[in-house]
Amino acid sequence: MSPRQRKVLEFVLDNLVWFMLLVVLAIFSATIPNYFQPGIFANVIEQSSVLGVMSIGLALVIIAGHMDLSVESVAALSAMATGILFASSGIGLGITLTPGWLVVPVSLVIGLAVGAVIGALNGYLVIKIKMNAFIVTLSSYIWVRGLVVASSGGRSAQNLAPDLRFLGIQRFLGIPLTAYIAILCFVGFSFMMAKTRFGRHLIMIGGNEAAAFRAGIKVDKVLMIAFVLSGAIAALAGWILAIRTSGATANLGTGLLFNAFAAVVIGGVSLKGGVGALPGVYAGVLLLSSINTAINLMGLPAHYTQVIHGLLVLAAVLLDTLKQTIRKRLA
Known about the structure:
Largest sheet: 3 strands, antiparallel
Shape: globular
Helix content: over 70%
Distance between the termini: 11 Å
CATH class: Mainly Alpha
CATH topology: ABC transporter involved in vitamin B12 uptake, BtuC
Order of helices and strands: HHHHHEHHEHEEHHHHEHHH
Strand order of the largest sheet: 1-2-5
Number of strands: 5
């Protein structure tokens, strides 16, 4: 194989999920009535905003060779905190700030702080106490969701402050501002992973933690930052979810964890660690959102979504194995 052919093959392997997305969109556009229109594509981007942001934090921890099952519950707690403090109906306290726009940064900081604290606790137990990340974050998934239910009493908070709802209602080029937040997150964290020392170190740790330590990388520090970021980013997803729904309920975001895992795996992140890129994760999120939209347009029962997502995850794992085999042959 010539160097040019090898370069082309490597490009295809690195961006396989984007090619899958284009093929799926082409098939849906050709076979489903009313699918090929700007409003549908804007809806796909809009529906992917919460899941997309949550998938970023999860991907960072998985690339580092660990696991974070708490992201869904952290998002729910952040949404509930936002709802209780700044919603005016139900259990909402209806806190107002002057000027009104201050509610946006204040609620965001509170939400991020909630997520960062839980992420730091997870990181401390995994890194310092040497507990298994799966068990630690599974425990957090349970107790944080319990905290959401306990803090709300099973009731809901609705009607967020107008300045918060503005972000969910206002559109630019037909797309809500919350979707642009998700896109900016992917651009920013993709740059971080590709161009900064932290991103390179995270990948090296996921590939071989012992070798990274011997190379002088501060493994514990990098991993702690990854867990804190995962918690804070999950909280950002919850904040966006609260804005989109204008409040919060005790079961808000249920099922997002499994969809986030599906997006991360489909996006090319290896569960073994050390392999993956955030642009691919975003393509995985868009792929899932495209399929959900197609199912809704065809009027199929909702359980078809779970079947297709499960098959996609299996296909992604098989493709990952195939890509590794091809790369070994090219080496």
